[in-house]
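Q:
Got a chain?
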Amino acid sequence: MPVSETLSDRAARRGRIVFDTFRSVHDPRLAAWLLFRSHLLPEWAITASSLSESTPEAALTPLGVFGVWRLLATNNRELGRCARIFVSPRAAFDAVVAEQARVDEMTVTAVRGPQSTTHGWVIRRGDRPILTAARWYESASEAAAAGRAATTALGTATIAQGVSIGTASGRRARVVMNTP
């Protein structure tokens, strides 16, 4: 496309859904992910080490290969994180495709964080958590507004075809995921 051509407004303003993995139950990024999620979804609170035990999530995550999806704004700022940890990036891909098609059935709930000045949000379809906040907000109304914006972004986001894989050195490598 020539530089002088403009992108359509819709294409230029779409967020992205990207996929990541955690190397093992000992990955510090996984521990941080689970700790943050435990404040938003206390009923799902588990530790990374408990994933190797017989828990419902352990059944989803054999061999230490965990797939998750994240919703990013057009400036690559993280807007939200999937609520579940999946058996693989492929399982995360399939789940987000299905959920994106049902975004009109989702609702946002503001959630109080560990301190009185921290609030987040959870997007649910029915009673099932789908997406959570990726950061804290100062007020419940600010969190709810951010959750509504994330719902809108989820409905129009471009789904990435690659996955970020952790390496032994701690660096991340992006590889193409086989999609149908």
